[in-house]
Write a structure and sequence with these properties.
With about 170 residues, this protein is an all-alpha fold. The chain is about 75% helix and about 0% strand. The protein has a single domain, classed as Up-down Bundle (Ferritin). The radius of gyration is 17 Å and the shape is elongated. Bound molecules: MU-OXO-diiron. The site of MU-OXO-diiron (FEO) has 7 residues, from α1, α2 and α3.
């Protein structure tokens, strides 16, 4: 069994992970329009990762005998009109997700659920990686500035990113 307050926090986080999947899918469309195939690949991997993050908590709630409550996923919103601006929003979103996962961990601590804290440790570490990865992309995009040739070179490099199904927990 799982504490009700913690169950609600997990359900909210599941929604945020699936929103992240949806947001990155929407951002991917912009890069498809620009025909930047490496960036499209980067977002494809990101979308799959977010799905895995959501399912990790979904399966965990089930394993703990919790009630899974799926709510509506909000319309994905972003304002960026350049790769740099979009990646600024990706980083801001990941920072938001980090604080949100920290909140779930705060609740797990409050209700003294050590097993949940163990799972959440994985997510906390994953967020360090996510922010570092996106921060690196952002730094490169800032360096590139208006250099289209350099942008195309980065795009080529991004084709190499592959999805590896994470082992969560
Ligand atoms: Fe699920 Fe990008 O954090």
């Amino acid at each position: 069994m799982i504490n009700e307050k913690l169950e609600a926090a997990f359900n909210e986080q599941i929604n945020k992970e699936f929103y992240s999947e949806y947001l990155y899918l929407a951002m991917k469309v912009k890069f498809m329009e620009w025909n930047l195939k490496g960036f499209v690949n980067w977002f494809n991997v990101q979308v799959q990762e977010e799905h895995a993050h959501g399912m990790g908590m979904f399966d965990y709630l089930d394993e703990r005998g919790g009630n899974i409550k799926l709510e509506a996923i909000a319309k994905p919103e972003f304002k960026g009109t350049t790769p740099l601006e979009i990646f600024e929003e990706v980083l801001a979103h990941e920072q938001f997700v980090t604080s949100s996962i920290n909140h779930v961990a705060d609740v797990a601590e409050e209700v003294k659920d050590r097993a949940a804290l163990h799972l959440l440790d994985w997510y906390i570490k994953e967020q360090v990686e996510e922010e570092s990865n996106v921060g690196g992309m952002l730094a490169t995009l800032k360096l590139i500035g208006d250099d289209k040739k350099a942008l195309l070179m980065l795009d080529k490099d991004l084709m190499a990113r592959t999805f590896v199904q994470p082992v969560i927990g």
